[in-house]
Amino acid sequence: MTSTDRTPTPYRTFDRATWSALGDRAPLPLSAEEAEEIRGLGDVAGLQEVRDVHLPLSRLLGLHVTACRRLREERDAFLGTSGGPGTPFLVGIAGSVAVGKSTIARLLRMLLARLAEHPRVELVATDGFLLPNAELRRRGLMARKGFPESYDQRALLRFVADVKAGHGEVRVPVYSHLAYDVVPGEHHTVRRPDILLVEGLNVLQAPPASRDGRAHLCVADYFDFSVYVDAATSDIERWYLERFHLLRRGAFRDPASHFHRFAQVSESEATAYARHTWRTLNEPNLRENIAPTRGRADLVLHKGPDHLVRRVSLRRL
Description:
The chain is an alpha/beta fold and 317 residues long. The chain has helices spanning 16-21, 32-38, 47-79, 101-113, 133-138, 153-164, 233-249, 267-290; strands at 11-15, 89-95, 121-125, 170-176, 181-190, 195-199, 225-230, 299-303, 309-315. It is 37% helix and 18% strand.
C-alpha cells in the first residue's frame, strides 16, 4: 500500500503488486479464449491483467454483495418486517470514452457470475438512453453527443429506480454503434438480477443545483458500489485515435455503418477528423463532466500509458 498520510484522502491506494496479491488464492474462472473474446478494441486486458486486477475486484464486490444481503436481513429483523426477496446490488462503472470501461464491465460481469453463489448478473450500458439522433438534431445537440444533456436523464433515472425497487421486468432501449443511434422500438429486458452493472460516461455525475432549493436524485444515488476508470488525458486521446483507426479498418467498412465514409478517405484525413472530434467533443466532456466525478467513486482504477492498471484506490469504510 502506498503512503497517503501527507494528503488527507478518503482512499487507501494500493500498488499493482499489493492489489494483485489479494487474488492469489482464488482460481481464475476464465479461459484465455474468453478473455480474448471480451477485450475491447485497442485494450490489452489479457489473462494476467484479469488475474492481477479484475479478479481481486470481483472478490471484493462479492464481499460487498454478501454484506449487503446480511445487513438487509438484520435490518428486517430489527424493524420486524417480513423482508421478502432483496433488490439487485447495483454497481456503477464510469470513465472516459476509450479508457476501457466497457471491457472492464464485461469482464466483471463474467467473473461475478462465477462466484460461489452463482448470482445472476446483468450489464447495461447507458448508450441506450441517449436521445435519438433526430431529437439531438432538433435540439441542436449532435455536436454534444455524450454530454449529460444528450441523454434522456429521466428515463435513465426511472430505469435504475425501477430496478432498485425490485420490479420484475424493466426495459432498456437498444443502441446501435453501427448506426450510431438508438434503434426505434427495440428494447432489452432486465429481469431482477442479483447484480446489475451500469456502465457509462456520466453515471457518477451529481444532479445540477436546483433553483428552488429542492434536492434532486441522480443515478449514482441508487448505486451500492461504484468504479471509476482513470488515465492521463494524453493517453486516452492516443487510445481514442488508435481505436478509431481499428474501427476504420474493420466495422466502418460495413456500408450500414454511420462512419462508413471514413473507410474510404486517406489515413491523414481520418486522423484529422478523429483528432478534431476528440478535442471538440470527447476531451471537453471528460474535463467538464466525467473527470470531476472521479472523487465520487468507491474505487478508482488508475491506468498507465500501456492500458494496464498501475494503482487501485479504494474508499475507506
